[in-house]
Amino acid sequence: MNFFLVIVIVLLIIMIFYYNSLVGKKNEVDNVLGGVDAILKKRYNLIPSLVQTVMEYAKHEKEVLEKITEYRSRAIRTSNKEQEVALNSEISSMLGGIMVSVENYPELKANINFIHLQKTLNELEAQISASRRAYNQAVTDYNNAIEMLPSNMIANFLNYERKNVFKIESSQKENPNIKNLFNQ
Amino acid sequence: MKDLSQVKDFYYKDIYSKVLDLELERLELVGKLQIMMGISAIIFLIMFILFYIYFIDDFFPDIILTIFAPFFLSIAIYAIGQYFLTKNYVSGFKNEVLKEIIQFIEPNLNFDKDRYISRNDFNTSNIFNQQYHKYNGNDLVYGTIDKTKFLFSDLHIEYKTKNGEDTNWHTLFQGIFFIADFNKEFIGNVVVLPDYMTPTFGLIANFFQNMKGNLIKLDNPEFEKKFVVYGDDQITARYILTHSMMDRILKLKEKVGKRVDIHLSFMGDKIYIAIDYREDQFEPNPFKSLKDFTPIENYVQTLRLIINLVEDFKLNDRLWSKD
User: Fold this and answer.
1) At what angle do helices B16-50 and B4-13 cross, to 10 degrees?
2) For A28-183, which CATH superfamily applies?
3) Which residue in chain A has the smallest CA separation from B214?
4) Which residues of A21-55 are buried (b: 16+ CB within 10 A; e: fewer)?
5) For B234, which of A122, A134, A177 is closest by C-beta distance?
6) Which value does ipTM take for this structure?
7) Would the CB atoms of B234 and A119 count as touching at under 8 Å?
8) Residue A166 pLDDT > 80, yes or no?
């Protein structure tokens, strides 16, 4: 009788351990996602000033700038995480393009306000890239846990489902380097 | 930065007269050291005979102790004698030769043979969290390259353990400790340590490492095999340890070799790098001629490797918010 009691207690402890570990991994994903959102929000706040400054000097970029503004609004409005990620990828790519075009506008390049905005943007792009990598690692750990024995049984019981990782374009794997962009 | 052949030319052309003066001093010193060795050998013999005749039956259980006690005593006498005899030569070498070489390699640098990285800086790095009992160092090099201020020195940190009545000393770190301005702004601390567990325990290693602190798992398998990373925040850690930064750390590891451990920390606005050579760098061997450049070459290679860290880690690239 005592023997069975010991086994039950040991099994219970193991179950609690795996349950806590699984919940911890799920919360870690949410936690990192919160970090991603915070950085994206900083960029949403930066974009209007950037667009306005660039628009003053670079009239030919109007179309792209309007598109950036539109994507920003859509990204803020949407509640679909995947759509938001896709829109932000587009924004990153368009902003990268704008930064290359800046070469054609010497007055804009020399504008102190623009230089400041550009530096802040570079910083944010690096942080976005870091946060995506952190999110992907958290999701990978979570996905592994819900598929591996024995934690997958608890995951099934809790109805935990696989989460998707962010697709990182190869151009975004490295931190944006304005010097390199200019040299392209 | 000057390369090895330029330093060699400088050595044999510009400072060779000083080197020859030191070489004379060295030859004189070798003579004194040989006399010291002779004296120590005589002391050993006299003590051995005296111990053997008078104490063998009373104090020592066997003949081995009768040999060991005089042997260690004479070695200690020689070591103390050697320290005082070589003091002037070592000092002359560092001030007349090493300092000149350092300032030739990079004119903006300063050198002070008696100073070293402060205990406070060492503790701030958070690399070695273990308690230690002896803190020593020498050969501080400091200065600025472009926008980056940096400093490094030799350090020797030891801790003691008690085994009954006996106290045993162990080296926690001995090598070069490097501190420089980091080119990104961040809040928190990220520590990169050699991974001793993963090669032995594989996947289970993560389980144990997780218990030691907030583990950061990175997306570079080669880096993950060699290093374990702890940090306050997952995003900050990746903001600092970009793919290119991980490659740079791996390259540094490759340069220093398999047997030398490297530890890094990113804290405040600084990067800390501890290269655990397990020996004091830049100490001249009085039994090696200064006319031969080979021993100097090793110092130059080490100096270039350390000074190059500013370039290798691209610490002058301030494209971000930091100027």
Assistant:
1) 90
2) LemA-like domain (1.20.1440.20)
3) A28
4) bbeebbebbebbbebbeebbeebeebbeebbebbe
5) A134
6) 0.76
7) no
8) no
